[in-house]
Amino acid sequence: MSQQQPPARPTRRSPSPAHRSPRALAAAGALLVLPLVAACGGGDQGAGGGKAAPSVTAAPAAGVVAPAKVEVIAGLTGCKAKIRIDADELRQGLCHTKEADYVITTFPEEKFKETWLEEARVYGGKYLVGTRWVVSVKPALLQSFRAKLGGTIIQLRGIGPEPGKR
Predict the structure, then answer these.
(1) DSSP labels for 62-86?
(2) d(CA 127, CA 29)
(3) pLDDT in tens, 136-165
(4) CB-based contact 127:94 (threshold 8 Å)
(5) CA-based nearest residue to 73, from 117, 108, 103
(6) Element (H, E) at 153
């Protein structure tokens, strides 16, 4: 008697880059940052919801602009990032230091960063934003990170009433 082999099951493959929506990945990245933003949101919401303070993009201490690579930005801030997302539209790493936990997100093109920021606007919060990168860290550390990385501190207003107002 011969035994029949069960039919081979197809292996699961991740969708090809052509099937990944940049907007969907940006939304997923924004959702991953939600717990961090909620914990670090700060209560001083800006009226316009846009940029809180214009600034120079070069880091005053370093005299350079941080490159858009998670590992390099993490090194400049004193940590070794654990990569959480590695996709065509963005890379995201989590840093853990004695000062804070924070997220570094980099983008291959500026348009992906703009889409990500638009999706993150729903959650509000303050971010350090540079050319093709965003750092999500508690507001008290934004100025010190800006001194190391450059960039601009922006305030995203979020949806719903401002904290403390009903």
Answers:
(1) T-SPPPS-HHHHHHHTT--PEEEEE
(2) 14
(3) 999 999 999 999 999 999 999 877 666 666
(4) no
(5) 103
(6) strand 152-156
For the chain, what's the residue count?
166
Does residue 159 come out as left (phi exceeding 0), alpha (psi in the -120 to 50 range) or beta? Answer: beta
d(CA 145, CA 97) in angstroms, rounded, equals: 13
Phi/psi of residue 117, each to 5°?
-65, -40
Whether 37 contacts 123, CB under 8 Å:
yes
Classify residue 78 by burial, with Cβ atoms within 10 Å: 0-12, 13-18, 19+. exposed
3-41 confidence digits (pLDDT tens):
555 554 444 444 444 444 444 444 444 444 444 433 344
Question: What's 27's DSSP letter?
Answer: H
Cα distances from 101 to residues 17, 52, 64, 82, in angstroms, run 30, 22, 24, 11
The amino acid at residue 123 is Y
Strand residue runs (E) in 8-150? 51-53, 82-86, 91-96, 101-106, 125-130, 133-136
How much is the pTM? 0.61
Give the pLDDT of residue 157.
Answer: 83
